[in-house]
Design goal:
Length: 228
């Protein structure tokens, strides 16, 4: 077994799946999705690593549109300071934070990398940014030849679209939870017995880290730790 890891803002735990797949033992912290609140949580200094993705609404363009339309209460506030507090209290050996490309680093000395699932050979075009105290860039595997293809080409599927078996495009509204899970790299029946509404499940899956992206980060963490 690899090191014990604390996952904060876990949501459905999709980012956690990648680390568990790589042999890490992941302990999930409280999340609003399950009635918990990180603001009242104080982790002990018992974890080797901390992972997590604070809500990205306050940084995303669509979040800003919703704020202008419905007011500040319609968007989750900036929770990066809570991630910073987790690092201060847990005192991990390493950490990695995931968020929108418009977010900011939780610490000034953080190393930053941007990944797109399309660059990793997946058919989805979804870009996320990661920050860590470890320099993960040099530990990422060589990207496939697809990295040279424009992510806006017909071979890339936007998160707002899906492709049916004939190759025609459908809008997100028409996509099922199973379709969204498959596009994220997970089994389409992962949430078959989960007690969530369809709209709630879609939102939670959409907020998760694609499996291929999470695995790439988890492998990079492992490689970086082995080199230390």
């Amino acid at each position: 077994m690899k090191s014990l890891v604390l996952s904060v803002f876990p949501g459905l735990g999709l980012f956690d799946y990648a680390f568990e797949q790589e042999g890490f033992c992941v302990v999930r912290g409280p999340d609003l999705l399950w009635g918990g609140d990180i603001r009242s949580f104080h982790p002990p200094p018992a974890f080797a690593g901390v992972i997590g993705g604070p809500p990205c609404q306050s940084f995303s363009p669509i979040g800003n549109v919703n704020r202008m339309r419905y007011g500040d209460d319609s968007v989750m506030g900036d929770m990066v300071p809570e991630f910073q507090r987790m690092l201060d209290e847990a005192e991990p050996r390493w950490w990695v934070m995931e968020n929108s490309i418009h977010a900011y680093a939780p610490r000034e000395d953080a190393h930053e990398i941007t990944l797109d699932t399309f660059w990793l050979g997946e058919r989805q075009n979804r870009r996320r940014r990661f920050w860590s105290n470890l320099n993960l860039q040099k530990h990422l595997p060589p990207l496939p030849a697809l990295v040279g293809i424009d992510a806006g080409s017909e071979r890339a599927v936007s998160w707002k679209d899906s492709v049916d078996w004939k190759g025609s495009r459908k809008r997100e509204k028409a996509r099922s939870v199973a379709d969204m899970l498959e596009l994220q790299g997970f089994s389409p029946d992962l949430l078959k017995d989960c007690p969530m509404t369809v709209s709630g499940a879609k939102k939670a899956v959409g907020n998760g880290v694609p499996l291929a992206m999470g695995v790439a980060i988890a492998k990079a963490i492992t490689s970086a730790l082995e080199k230390q």
